[in-house]
Amino acid sequence: MGIKMIVLNTPEDVGSFAADLFELEIKARPACVLGLATGSTPLPLYRQLVARCKEGRIDFSRVRTFNLDEYEGLAPDHPQSYRRFMQENLFDHINIKPENTHVPDGLAADPEAMFADYERQIADCGGVDVQLLGIGHDGHIGFNEPGEAFELGTHCVDLKPETIEANKRFFEGNEDLVPKQAYTMGIKTIMQARKVLMVANGKDKAEIVKKAFFGPVTPEVPASILQMHPDFILVGDEEALSLI
Ligand code: F6R
Questions:
Q1: Does residue 145 have an active-site annotation?
Q2: Separation of 161 CA from ligand 1 center, angstroms?
């Protein structure tokens, strides 16, 4: 137990470090299972993975992936869907097999069955070897917002009015077009990963990073549960880690 923290100069350095870790994992276990995230923080990492795959340094042909989350009601090819984000920023540019990539289905007719199936597929692959996470300003991980029970697996969440308001810029500025719910791995799913790697960049993450990892473990700060994970590593730039 105990958190490992790595402070690096820039977001690009954070991306390279995370890419080194993924590269080592894939070389050690070519059929490893990676848990992936969307958002802006993982982008330098994904650019590195694409470059290293093109150079022949990383072979994704046997790698399996499971993403954290997806908006309810968005088709895979919707410009704001997390499936599309993953295709455009990673999957379309590496030699991963499409059938080995998993993102919760935003259009599932029976969401409960889809959640059970998602958990079963992760288990059938032997569990997640390395789970990548970003952190929200309120301490959310995946779409697990403050107050969410720690013991949930993949489930549906109602988006907070603040989240809907913040996201409307991606939906023609129209609140009505923003999904009101999302599907996310739960804290339990995340905690079951063998290794968890969180990336954090920028001054605006400094307060929450301090609160999550030097404050009490509480559902009010979902990321704080990672203090209890046996193999958790936080990699951040100087700004994000400036208060610790
Ligand atoms: C993304 C996700 C979110 C983000 C978080 C931070 O799949 O689940 O929890 O990791 O909102 O986002 P960025 O990296 O854009 O600051």
A1: yes
A2: 17
